[in-house]
Amino acid sequence: MVIIALDSGKTKTNAVAIDDSLNVLCRVSDRGGGLIYSDEVIMNALMNVIVECMRVMGIRVNDIDVIAVSWADLDTEAYWIKASRIINELARRINIPRSKLVFDHDAVAAYYAVTLGEPGVAVIAGTGAIALGVNARGERARSSGWGWLIGDEGSAGWIALKALNAASRAYDGRGPWTSLVNRLKDYFKVKDLLSILDVMYAEPPEIDKLAKLAILVSEEAEGGDEVSVNILKEAGRELALNAVTVAKRLGMINESIVVGGVGSVFSSRIVNEEFRKVISNSLVKAKVKEPLIGNYSLLGPIIMSLSRINKKITNTDVEKLLKEL
Amino acid sequence: MVIIALDSGKTKTNAVAIDDSLNVLCRVSDRGGGLIYSDEVIMNALMNVIVECMRVMGIRVNDIDVIAVSWADLDTEAYWIKASRIINELARRINIPRSKLVFDHDAVAAYYAVTLGEPGVAVIAGTGAIALGVNARGERARSSGWGWLIGDEGSAGWIALKALNAASRAYDGRGPWTSLVNRLKDYFKVKDLLSILDVMYAEPPEIDKLAKLAILVSEEAEGGDEVSVNILKEAGRELALNAVTVAKRLGMINESIVVGGVGSVFSSRIVNEEFRKVISNSLVKAKVKEPLIGNYSLLGPIIMSLSRINKKITNTDVEKLLKEL
């Protein structure tokens, strides 16, 4: 058995091939293949990693059992249509049966990584934030994931924007003092905080870069800054509300479901504790898993692939994979 | 006497010339001359309107008493240096004594338009928001004006972003239902609200365009939508907090100062009532003026010019000017 799992995002397309014993047979990367790009750019990124994987392993297309693609941005009808078109064309070009190709939103991949396919909810908080759940009837619901402009409450991008706002309010005297004022001055190398306006509005902001400010917030919070602590606590509550909302819509409030956080924001002790607290109070029978942080993004499409060929996976398997990926 | 008042923003540079009796002698426009542009672009915009005004009136540079420029974005040290450089060069090119040229932040211009130069605070809420105050000792303070990414609480841009967020929360089930969901679907011509993601993230957002959503919020609020009402009330409170903060920093909490709102957001009855309520409670001796809405942006540089030549202006003069501008 050979499966190829792909994670295709804005900046990178990563792929691994896995055998029966869940050994990683190859690991390759190409440029970004997120759905914001043209069909040809995406197609090339996907083709490149698949062809390179086959070359490394010395296999042919017929030897592959499943190819699973996890896609960021697969939010709207327009993107679903685009993704289907690309997958159909990919099947034609590499001459593989369409039935061997699966794709889904990277939030669904995260859901699989957290729950191994059991009823439950995964809450993802990296640069953006989204919750995705599936109940015993296979029904799905999502919450948040509206991007940095509209929402993504609790994400690193959201924490960064909250921090900038809190610092501006402190500077003006409209809000409580916070050590973020000085941290942000240092970070942006300005003498007067107001001069960050030159940096922020010179060109359209890139939320991926701004999101890094969340690390400063975490550091200041651990150092005792009350404003930073409150931002992180609010992040934890928003992320938990996300999970609870999904559970409610799927009729799982009183079910023994699996709930877990995924992504860098959960590395904050404060976020994580607040998240657990709200989940425990609202979803009393839920099993809250330890957050998945680090290189988990390929775990989802791997489990999606295994589920396509009806192969069960255990928590021990996941631990093995997480070490190898 | 002839004064020329200029208002130089991102999309337009407007100018009027005024005589002794405050008659408008000419009115001209050119392309934007905001400080985000290159020196030459700004210089050309300023030169064009000044030269055109002189041509219309049939006067020479020597006949001009004052030229006052009101500039958006004059927030940071870098922009102050740029503006000074441009004004010095402008004086050289049109051969006018540097002392006849004045320039300032458009928030200062708004302050003059509201207070006629008396101690007080102007709170501006258009696309962005800022409060600017001056006390009896001539000391200045500002609050907010951090732009749509960081703050600008209470502005039309802020109201628009709050509305998008509230609609997303209602759609998910994370927040109370709001009629904004359907208004935004109609506005963006999408069947499913989630499809606004295609619109919002296809290219960098322009806050000037987004800010127009504030009108929908006002309409839904007047139609009874509780979520919209709360957004506008919060806007009013934030704008009032802005004024109170400035008054506090200038030691004017218990002084008989003039406080007034400027800009399109104050055309909302709900914003305006909430603003007045907080101001009356916090600045008990303040005289709250009726908001200046509409074509007030040249009033500031006109009053700045008159103040430069020590000419007093009355509220009757202002009413006359507001009708003519």
Automatic annotation (TrEMBL), chains A, B:
| InterPro entries, alphabetized | ATPase_BadF, ATPase_NBD, Euk-type_GlcNAc_Kinase
Q: Pfam families, per this entry?
A: BcrAD_BadFG
Any stretches that span the bilayer, and where are they? none
For the ATPase BadF/BadG/BcrA/BcrD type domain, which residue ranges apply? 6-296
Per its UniProt record, what SUPFAM superfamilies does this chain match? Actin-like ATPase domain
PANTHER family, alphabetized: N-ACETYL-D-GLUCOSAMINE KINASE (PTHR43190)
The name of this protein is ATPase BadF/BadG/BcrA/BcrD type
Protein source organism: Caldivirga maquilingensis (strain ATCC 700844 / DSM 13496 / JCM 10307 / IC-167)
The taxonomic lineage of its organism, from the top, reads: Archaea, Thermoproteota, Thermoprotei, Thermoproteales, Thermoproteaceae
